[in-house]
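Write out C-alpha cells for Uma2 family endonuclease.
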Amino acid sequence: MVAITTSAENRVLLQNISWQTFKTMLAEMGSDRNSRLAYDNGTVEIMTPQMPHENSNRVIEGFVGVLCEELDWEIRRAGSLTLTRDDLQRGAEPDSSYYIQNEALVRDKENIDIAIDPPPDLVLEVEYSRSAINKLRLYAAMGVPEFWRYNGSVLRVYTLAGGQYSEVETSPTFAPVSVKEIPRFIQEAKKNGEIATTRVFRVWVQEKISTKKQ
C-alpha cells in the first residue's frame, strides 16, 4: 500500500487487486462516502478529497451549469457516478461528470450502466496531486468524449479522437467560451465569494457568446 497526503487530497494505492475484488470493494463501501475509487490493470486508487480539492470541484460545477444555461444546453449532473466496464476491467468515480449532448438519453434513468448507456459527455478530475492511474487512458477506453483536468492552477481540456485524447485549447462543448480561463474565476471566488464571482462569470460568458454571434 502506498499513501500520499496533501492539503488538498489523500490518495491510497493498492496493488495486485483483482477486478472482482474491486467490484466487491465498491459494493461493501457503498455510495454513502466521500472517497472516490479508480481501477486499472490491477491497481486500485482511493482518493479522499480535502477542502481545496472539493471546493474547486464544486465551483467548477457551478460554472458548468452557467455555461449550459447561457448556451441553452440541457444538462444532467451525474457527480461522482461510478463508471465500470466489466469487459474492459476498468472503473472510475470522477470528481464530476455531466450529460449534455446525450442528456435526453439518460434524463429519466435512475441507474446508468455505461456498458449499454452512453458515458458522460464531460468528466472532470481535480488533481492537486497526480493520480497514479492514467486517467487519460482510463476515460478514453470508456469513450468519454471530453475530459477536464484541474491541478489547482491550470485547467487542461482533452477531446477524444481515434480512441485517444488530445489536449485542445477550446472545449468543443462550450466552443464560444475559453473555459481554460476558469481558474482565474476560482481564484476570484476565494477573495470575493462564490455567488459574487458566479455573477461576474455569467456576465463574462454572455459577453463571449455575444461576441461570437457578431
